[in-house]
Design a protein that fits this description.
Layout: E1 2-12, E2 17-26, E3 29-34, E4 44-47, E5 52-55, E6 57-62, H1 75-84, E7 87-92, H2 103-116, E8 120-123, H3 139-145, E9 150-151, H4 160-170, E10 177-179, H5 184-187, E11 192-193, H6 196-201, E12 205-206, H7 209-225, E13 229-231, H8 237-248, E14 253-257, H9 259-263, H10 285-297, E15 302-303, H11 312-315, H12 332-341, H13 348-355, H14 357-363, E16 378-388, E17 407-417, E18 420-421
Parallel strand pairs: 1-4, 1-5, 6-7, 7-8, 9-10, 10-13, 11-12, 13-14, 14-15
Antiparallel strand pairs: 1-2, 2-3, 5-16, 16-17, 17-18
Helix pairs in contact: 4-7, 7-8, 8-10
């Protein structure tokens, strides 16, 4: 199948392109990018006038929940949510049931992705068996099976000696260890950020230091071992400083930030909406400002949703009893375009890089480029389309979002994977 995308503004950070151009796709790959390309015989033409054509967006932090928690999400529903949100690839975390700590679970996820998925799926294997933090998982077996990174996301690995060994074991594979940077003792029993707001609301709060302490530890371990550590869902100004300083020293550390930590503060919790309960918690305005600055200057390498679907029952009731996390695949891009790009906070080209080129580089994935021979994974944006966030229309199986009812300017228009349009 051949596809010619006409008359779009092509932004391809990997190749330094930001110009009006056409994109020719054939046999699942990018063939050419340039102005006024000749249309081959039998080519389908997609008119992208007024639209922005980008390398396919990649979300390196998603919970697809399958196997084991299909009532929250499945590979089928999660990948359809990704396609609707403009993502051509997702990396799924290991906290399934059974845990993805051995080859059989990885094989199952990949088989499901081939048969039922509509975007590319890359599994992330567990660091420790059953996410228990006691003994290492079969890291070599997981890497061989196709895991692109290792993480006990959702559970901090408190044993520093064990985490050091994990980093050392990953060196031959070249895969990063993704850190859920949270001191379990400082954060135990808490449900939001510690500060004035938590005091006013009478809720137990976790100090920013609960994150900073573990970021510092994992940077030091990466410096000791030479391994690549990636800090998931960075949320504090202190952690930003630690990552920035470590990068200046040449430590192999990278970091991600979520859309909700870029646009919401702890003040969102004042209504006791369980959909504002997440881990790490929403922080202060000062933290948000530090995160946005770090995203702009490259201290934070990419944006990831931490898409965490939960059933309605798990998000009902008292705030401190509700499950942590929100869905993000279907709102992330629109939210970022509206609040950061149209808000004049972040250049569009930088946002595109942080959602495509940079995550592909970070996990050494194919994609993130519109260069000749690259996979024909493309995200096309309509910067002026207005969308009302309506959870009832989500493709995800879950509805837990704090953005219901928001009207956002800018939205993914087409999501193309392997040369095929996969979103409605």
């Amino acid at each position: 199948m051949s596809l010619l995308i006409r008359n779009g503004r092509v932004i391809d950070p990997a190749n330094g392109v930001d110009a009006g151009a056409d994109v020719l796709i054939a046999d699942g790959s990018i063939q050419r990018v340039g102005p006024s390309l000749l249309a081959p015989a039998n080519v389908e033409i997609l008119d992208a006038t007024g639209k922005v054509v980008c390398p396919g967006f990649i979300d390196i932090h998603v919970h697809l929940r399958e196997p084991g928690y299909e009532y929250k999400e499945t590979v089928a529903t999660g990948t359809r949510a990704a396609a609707a949100g403009g993502f051509t690839a997702v990396c799924c975390m290991a906290n399934t049931d059974p845990v993805n700590d051995n080859r059989s679970v990885t094989d199952y996820i990949l088989a499901k992705a081939r048969s039922e998925g509509v975007v590319r799926v890359y599994p992330i294997g567990a660091v420790t068996r059953d996410l228990a933090g006691k003994e290492l998982a079969e890291l070599a077996e997981l890497a061989e099976a196709g895991c692109v990174a290792f993480s006990d996301d959702g559970n901090p690995v408190m044993d520093a000696a064990l985490y050091r060994r994990a980093m050392e074991y990953t060196l031959p594979f070249g895969t990063p260890v993704i850190s859920h940077a949270e001191d379990a003792h400082l954060a135990r029993g808490t449900c939001m950020n510690e500060g004035v707001v938590s005091t006013e609301l009478g809720l137990d709060g976790a100090p920013a230091a609960a994150e900073d302490v573990m970021v510092a530890r994992d940077i030091l371990l990466a410096e000791l071992t030479g391994a690549h550590v990636h800090i998931a869902h960075l949320s504090t100004a202190g952690a930003v400083r630690l990552v920035r300083d470590a990068k200046a020293r040449g430590v192999r550390v990278t970091a991600e930030v979520t859309p909700h930590h870029l646009v919401l503060t702890e003040d969102a919790v004042r209504g006791y909406d369980p959909n504002t309960k997440m881990n790490p918690p929403l922080r202060t305005k000062r933290d948000v400002e530090a995160l946005v600055e770090a995203l702009a200057d490259g201290t934070i390498d990419c944006i990831a949703t931490d898409h965490a679907p939960h059933s309605l029952a798990e998000k009902e009731g008292a705030f401190d009893d509700a499950a942590f996390g929100i869905v993000g695949l279907e709102t992330a891009v629109a939210l970022l375009l509206d609040r950061l790009v149209h808000g004049g906070v972040l250049p569009l080209a930088t946002l595109v890089a942080r959602l495509s080129t940079d995550p592909a580089r970070l996990l050494r994935l194919r994609g993130g480029s519109l260069g000749a021979g690259a996979p024909a994974d493309v995200t096309i944006l309509d910067l002026d389309a207005e969308v009302d966030v309506d959870p009832a229309r989500f493709r995800s199986r879950s509805r837990n979002t704090p953005f219901a009812g928001w009207t956002l300017r800018g939205h993914p228009w087409k999501t193309i994977v392997g040369g095929r349009v996969v979103n409605p």
